[in-house]
Q: What sequence folds into this?
């Protein structure tokens, strides 16, 4: 553990008894291999998506993988922005969406993530208009960066986007400098001013923050939380730093990452934010309820992702699109879906996936589980349910559903962190097989 952080925690954060650490440690040990095998995708040629089932509600994810600057902690599929490449990409996205439409898919919600979706604002607005009329989409969530919260860019999305999410990561100048965002996106004061301008334009305005950066002290985190509370945003998401191998290398200069500092920092977030916000998921907090959240994978059981490096989960099977921009274009020029790998989940894996996504939002629906799998969670997932019960993490509510007990959300944070770490390992692996020219565009050297 970083010395500065250890000293600060020992004086300012509540001590974490060893007993509190055991469940999370056991869980991490149990989950690592499980998540690895869950996401062990098989490369397949000539793959297609299953046709849509008319009775199901799906959500659509659209990935825009271009950024003006590449942040060292980020292991998403992103490339340095080149206008011609990005223009072509928007055309290819349209072609992919047409193929998806032909398979009968309709969506009520679209999540546009990146990368930086607002990087070509005219193309983005045209794309949103098109998908709304093509698929009957009613709600749109979109991501951006602080330098785009200005007139001429962000006001173009007013009235067409329901939830805007801006990545801030931290309001601490030292941390912003360390992740190369201070120069690019400006000081905390400038970012707060831009949020004050943009937030009233959208029903939900979310700030994405990261905690547990190497070198982040509890005092720094408290300063971040205060800034969020002063801001005009009505939603905040605090992600634990997720460290794949490539991220560990690129953030190495900040100090050594430690999962042991995660719980005391998470407790500070929950305690302090609860004065003004309510929990909406284990890491999203809102000033009012019933808003969209970032995790499209948890809002609808089945989702379809378009764009390079997107994932889809349909009919118990995971699909992944090619991470190569060149291959993405070539697939679509031939009118083929740009799929590169798949994994059929076993019944047990489907149950585990349901367990994780539903508890992420606080509740496992027992009847829905029985209807889907013909078995109760206590039998189908006896080990997981026993674990949750033994550590006092869940109770049965009046509708016979399982709810997380207050103060036990951290177990789910650990599970989600492990899940996303596996997704990030998969992204790392996919990037390693890109051509040297594309590796240069995403600044991957190994
Ligand atoms: C992938 S970015 C896309 C949107 C936008 N470019 C941005 O920077 O916010 C969405 C959010 O993912 C989170 N994120 C990225 N890498 C992460 C990591 N390694 N660990 C935890 N959160 C991460 C950041 O909070 C970021 O704002
Ligand atoms: S955090 Fe956002 S801006 Fe930074 S590289 Fe990732 S997607 Fe791009």
A:
């Amino acid at each position: 553990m970083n010395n500065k952080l250890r000293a600060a925690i020992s004086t300012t954060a509540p001590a974490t008894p060893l007993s509190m650490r055991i469940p999370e440690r056991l869980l991490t040990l149990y989950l690592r291999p499980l998540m690895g095998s869950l996401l062990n995708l098989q490369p397949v040629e000539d793959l297609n998506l299953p046709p849509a089932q008319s009775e199901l509600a799906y959500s659509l994810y659209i990935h825009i993988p271009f950024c003006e600057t590449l942040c060292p902690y980020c292991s998403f599929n992103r490339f340095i922005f080149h206008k011609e490449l990005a223009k072509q990409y928007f055309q290819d996205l349209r072609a992919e969406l047409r193929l998806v439409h032909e398979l009968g898919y309709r969506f009520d919600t679209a999540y546009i993530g990146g990368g930086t979706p607002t990087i070509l604002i005219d193309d983005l607005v045209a794309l949103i208009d098109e998908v709304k009329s093509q698929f009957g989409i009613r709600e749109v969530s979109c991501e951006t960066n602080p330098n785009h919260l200005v007139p001429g860019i962000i006001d173009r999305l007013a009235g067409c986007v329901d939830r805007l999410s801006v990545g801030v990561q931290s309001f601490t100048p030292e941390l912003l400098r360390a992740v190369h965002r201070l120069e690019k996106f400006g000081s905390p004061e400038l970012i707060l001013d831009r949020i004050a301008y943009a937030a009233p334009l959208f029903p939900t305005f979310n700030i994405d923050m990261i905690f547990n950066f190497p070198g982040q002290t509890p005092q720094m985190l408290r300063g971040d939380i205060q800034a969020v509370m002063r801001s005009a945003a009505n939603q905040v998401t605090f992600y634990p730093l997720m460290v794949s191998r490539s991220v560990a290398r690129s953030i190495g200069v900040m100090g050594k990452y430690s999962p042991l500092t995660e719980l005391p920092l998470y407790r500070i977030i929950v305690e302090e934010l609860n004065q003004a916000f309510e929990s909406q998921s284990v890491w999203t907090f809102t000033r009012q309820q019933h808003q969209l959240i970032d995790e499209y994978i948890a809002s609808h059981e089945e989702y379809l992702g378009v764009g390079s490096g997107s994932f889809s989960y349909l009919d118990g099977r995971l699909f992944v699109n090619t991470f190569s921009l060149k291959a993405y274009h070539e697939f679509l020029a031939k009118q083929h879906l740009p799929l590169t790998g798949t994994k059929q989940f076993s019944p047990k894996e489907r149950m585990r996936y349901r367990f994780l996504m539903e508890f992420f939002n606080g509740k496992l629906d027992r009847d829905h589980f029985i209807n889907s799998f013909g078995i109760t969670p206590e039998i189908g997932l006896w080990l997981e349910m026993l674990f949750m019960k033994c550590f006092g993490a869940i109770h049965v509510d009046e509708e016979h559903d399982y709810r997380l007990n207050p103060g036990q959300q951290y177990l789910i944070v650990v599970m989600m962190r492990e899940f996303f770490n596996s997704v990030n390992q998969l992204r790392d692996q996919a990037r390693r097989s890109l051509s040297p020219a594309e590796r240069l565009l995403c600044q991957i050297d190994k």
Notes: The longest helix spans residues 409-432.
